[in-house]
Write a structure and sequence with these properties.
Elements (H helix, E strand, L loop, with lengths): L1 E6 L18 E4 L9 E5 L12 E5 L8 H9 L6 E4 L2 H4 L5 E3 L19 E6 L7 H16 L4 E4 L16 E7 L10 H7 L4 E5 L14 E2 L3 H8 L4 H6 L1 H11 L5 H8 L6
Parallel strand pairs: 1-2, 1-3, 3-4, 4-5, 5-6, 7-8, 7-9, 9-10, 10-11
Length: about 270
């Protein structure tokens, strides 16, 4: 197992970038940068603190541009300060140069708890009280509308609604789960989607338009507007879930690749650590 220096405030309270996951290949060193390291990673707010003396300087953009516009502007103007800039942002990747793809991904379901569970309920959603992004606002709107249009159809969990100790409560029993990402951008998908796959739950999905590049789209029911979602939920039944089982199994396997960004990076771009 290798040890790599990181300057980070995004996930400083946990060992890795995704809750409940442990890397098989590497661990982070959060001790102060000395200046003679071979490789140092910098995340989001820490990126402008880059030490020019480091041999290989790696910037890692975690949050989407919608939430960190000033940071993204700074990175564009100062990209020559880094050897590699890791990002899920397609507009930056299209610039080529030293921008390289990394999925945000993540999974909040522990490896031991990941399995295709037997389903006994129909539809759920988990939402926090946040109202910053377009996705945040859409979650609250569809909860309100579905509760009004189809009483008792949707089980709602999360802070501000019905707080739960574990996401498993809102996923394992359910055949379908409404997943609304904070932002709708190519290549941007998060634990909100992967947690569904890790529990054998079919996502009703608003998010990454290019999600078919990463997962079996037959196991994802996408929608683009509230009206489309309402048409979908009013006809859902357990037989539809059973019909989707082959794709559900495919996505269960694929999800493991994106459970932890650090492991994806080590497997696919190990040279960055060298």
């Amino acid at each position: 197992m290798i040890t790599v220096k990181i300057v980070d405030r995004n996930f400083r309270m946990v060992d890795y970038s995704s809750l409940n996951q442990k890397s098989q290949y590497m661990k982070w060193d959060r001790s102060p940068v000395e200046g003679d390291e071979n490789v140092v990673f910098y995340t989001d707010h820490s990126i402008p603190q880059v030490n020019p003396n480091i041999k290989k300087k790696v910037a890692w953009l975690l949050e989407p541009q919608e939430r960190k516009q000033k940071l993204y502007n700074w990175v564009k103007k100062n990209r020559d300060k880094f050897d590699v800039i890791l990002t899920h942002n397609k507009s930056l990747l299209d610039l080529k140069d030293n921008f390289e793809f990394i999925p945000f991904g993540g999974c909040w379901i522990t490896p031991k708890e990941q399995k295709i569970y037997k389903k006994s309920k129909l539809i759920s959603i988990i939402a926090s009280g946040k109202k910053e992004t377009k996705g945040h606002k859409l979650r609250h709107k569809v909860i309100k509308d579905i509760k009004k249009k189809f009483p008792n159809l949707l089980d709602v969990y999360g802070r501000g609604y019905n707080e739960i100790e574990s996401k498993l409560i809102g996923l394992t029993d359910y055949s379908f789960h409404i997943v609304i990402e904070n932002s709708k951008k190519d290549y941007w998908f998060t634990e909100k989607l992967i947690d569904c796959f890790a529990t054998g739950t079919v996502p009703l999905y608003w998010g990454c338009p290019s999600i078919g590049k990463f997962f079996d789209e037959k196991g994802i029911i996408t929608f683009h507007t509230e009206k489309q979602l309402y048409e979908i939920v009013k006809t859902l039944n357990q037989n539809q879930y059973e019909d989707l089982l082959p794709a559900i199994k495919n996505n269960f396997v694929e999800a493991k690749k994106y459970a932890l960004a650090e492991d994806w990076l080590y497997i696919n771009k190990k040279n960055i650590f060298e």
